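Q: I'm writing up a methods section and want to include an example of the input and output format. Could you take the sequence below and give the corresponding predicted structure tokens, formatted cleanly so I can copy it straight into the document?
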Amino acid sequence: MAETNSDRLLSPVFKKIILWFKKDSVFKLAVTLIFAIGIIFRFWDYYDRIVILADNSRDIQVAKYALDYFRIPQIGQFSSAGPFFYGPWYYWILMVFSKAPLGLLSPWYMMSLLSLVFVLLIFWLGKEIGGRHLGALAAFFAVISPAQISNSLAVWNPAIIPLLSVIILIFMTKYFSYRRTREIFIFGFVLSLAITIHFQSILLLPVLIVLLIATKPPKKHLIYLFFGLLIPFLPLIYFDVRHYWYDFKSVFIYLAIDQYSIYVPNRWLTYVFSYWPLTWGQIIGGNKWAGGAVIILLAGFTLARFKEFNKNKIFYLISLTFVLEVLLFRYYRGPRYEYYSYFTHPTVLILSAWALKKLVEVQRLAGIFFIILVVFVTLNQSITNFKETGISFKKINILKTEIYSTFPKDFEFSIYGCKENTSSLSHPLALFIYNDKKNNLDGIKIGVCETAQKFEWVILSSKKIQEEGYVNKTTSKVFTETAEWWKENPPQKDAQFWQFMKRKLNPSCYPHCL
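A: Here is the clean output for your methods example:
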């Protein structure tokens, strides 16, 4: 058979790949295997494992509706902590993801692919800190991390924070090494972007402090940094200028007053000896005892190797930022949900790999045993997550088909969530029906509810909606209430704001405060 032009083109490519692979083939085979495992853990039984409930589907509802009707969200979703909202950048990102020609699940596919990019970046950062073997070990921990696997299957706004966090660390280290304006600009841009996507990312600010102290940027570089930090906030500033600084004042009230209104246990002993070992264990995949053991090893080797500071400047730079982040997080007064620690994922994975690599260097058998132990408990936990979620793609499709079969083909539906769980089931169902172009405010009113046994749905009357507290989750209404609520209910000028703040911050002197 005659050789085709494509064969002639591909042959040199394959030859180059084979020649590249022959050099240090064992290490390259190991790295290839790591990424292959990452693909399996993220895409195996994909439809049953992706997270579509509540906020995940709500955010896709907003993004898809904005695309379909040529609307650009000016603000993001409200925070669960208080009456303030994030910037619109994440909705813009989801709108881009939704344009991928992969169907309804395009945003989920894109987030899962970004999870693999996260692994690649962890490898690069680890290699910069301690060589390629450290990079490979950190990448392997990222691949099998239960927290990272779960994160790769979600599309709500905290899911992208670990990726942005590792990008911030990479550009911090690149600027530390090369002192170029583009690095400090991108560093500032991504840092502000992370903060506007989820305000818990404000805990990354110690990275900025350490960068400024360690590098002492010249004036020109500080200008680039300033504009990098400013640009992601411009949409929020634009909104607030036109609406009496509503968001700024809401955030200020929360930080100065509201966060102190609810008591949350916050002892140092609990924080150090319970919260962080448990969180560390969740990220690397073990329990709090494994997490605590890695923390002890890390602390010991960090102090013992301090005399080698000049050889490990990047490691100590990242370690210092993490210590400051931990200290800052301690003074957050509120419940610490698991996703509040997403910003620490890259640092925890890198530092864990560094500590265990140092243990191997000091005591080879003990180090290998410890790594095998961590990998074993991690894989055991990760494999148990290979199961169908409570609200899965398949189950929503079955529910949708059941509703469709009850009515003629040309009927449209307005979806409501029951009072007991208004969002978990109604958002994904409304999204799926909207994707079929059958979700309409004027359609048949359908109420859905998740019970212990099954998903239930009923046809609603206006009376039943009012009496039983059903909440409308039709896509057009979700978009309006999430991204454009300010059009129907614009924020009003508050002439009493400063008097309110004086009274709350210093009640003993009010009304005679200056």
